[in-house]
Amino acid sequence: MAFADRLPVVSAPGETHGRRASRCAVRTRKAVLAGVVEGKSSWKIAVILGISRNTVDFHIKNAMQKLEVTTRNAGAYQP
After folding, report:
1. 59 or 67, higher pLDDT
2. What pTM was estimated for this model as a whole?
3. Residue 49 needs a FRET pair 20 to 30 A away by CA distance; which of 2, 31, 43, 66 works?
4. Is 39 exposed, middle or buried (0-12, 13-18, 19+ CB in 10 A)?
């Protein structure tokens, strides 16, 4: 199954407050990280998800900090 076919909905109309916005952010983060695992560039992930490259890089940077890794590839292959 292709990367784009497995992606959750990144946002939905009206999901801008509280828990709904939080769930939306989590779905976006997971979708970004799925793209990293598949070796996609930030630009390609951004185009597929319909978000900015800066947003993609933001999610990757935060994940790298949480995983305590220095490269996105190391973060993608954490056991």
Report:
1. 59
2. 0.68
3. 66
4. exposed
Task: Say which CATH class 14-76 falls into.
Answer: mainly alpha
- pLDDT exceeds cutoff 90 at 76: no
| Digit-coded pLDDT (tens) for 20-66 | 556 777 888 889 989 998 999 999 999 999 999 999 999 999 888 88
Contact present, 59 and 34 (Cβ < 8 Å): no
CB atoms within 10 A of CB 6: 10
Separation CA 18–CA 60 (nearest Å):
23
Long-range pairs for 64-72: beta carbons < 8 A, 24 or more residues apart: 72/36
Residues 54, 56: Cα–Cα separation, whole Å: 5
